[in-house]
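Tutorial, part two.
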Amino acid sequence: MLGLGLSLLTGGSLRPYYAVVAAAFKDRVEADGGTVESMSCLKADLKVLNPIKPPAYTGLLNDYSGAAAAYSLRLLDNTYTGNAIKVRRASDNAEQDIAFSNNELDTATLETFASGTDAFVTTWYDQSGNNYNVTQTTASNQPKIVSSGSTILQDGKPIVDTSNSTRYMELDGFAFSSLSIFITATYDNGATEGSLISGGDDVQNRWDYGPRRTNDYRFLLQVVSDERINSTNNYKDGVRRLFTADYSHIGVNGSNVATGSLSTSIPVYTSGWRLSGRFFGTGFVEASNKFQEVILYDSDQSSNRTGIETNINDFYSIY
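Running the prediction step on this input gives:
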């Protein structure tokens, strides 16, 4: 037999189990002329080994901590024990929290609850630990996530779908002085003007990130009406992308598309925050977005930007 228990120790250090097993098994089979001597011998050898455990799950926020708010349909932090979303089903308006399964949205439970009907997101839970959940209590304004019993997907992953002129989510009480943002989303064809995310309530008192009709649906980061960074490309095509921004750049799919110099702080808005669309004066400006992940940092993440983008792209395979 292989004597694997002794062969694990080499030079006073513990070699990785898999390397020792592979090498020893190869040597034994070759010595036996290319055949395994007996199953009983093989089983005896394998009993010597302790089970090889897979590495613990590590989420994006475990590697890049300090997010001010974080919304996703995957688990972002291995210490987070809450739910992903709360949904309402159309058949009877019942609501239910939906958790994660294998670190992703539990779509099996979601579809069982939807029971062949549509389901809409009433709460998207904040995984940052700061409890800045985004909500929508008005049924006609709630984003859709299940259609006729099936989870709505884009590129194989679930989405929170605001592709309707009145669908958006609200976040009040969120206050910060600087921001780095990472959004996995799609801007589609159904809206005239709007934002991926915005704060403030009127033209002189707002913060916008997203498409603008006056700029041919180019993306901009606007702090106040006269201070902005504009991209030169049009992204109104229904393609999922990773959008990033801070006060010196706008990025799309890991590359800069616009640079500039904005204030290092922004007005502190504690109301008027919208995920998808924005309020302009007294009226709502619609948008048509599909979201999978929104991560906001109240700090400069330029040194971590590439790592965060890589983590997101590794999971979603965007570019």
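Residues 1 and 41 are 6 Å apart (CA to CA). In part three we will examine how such features are distributed along the chain.
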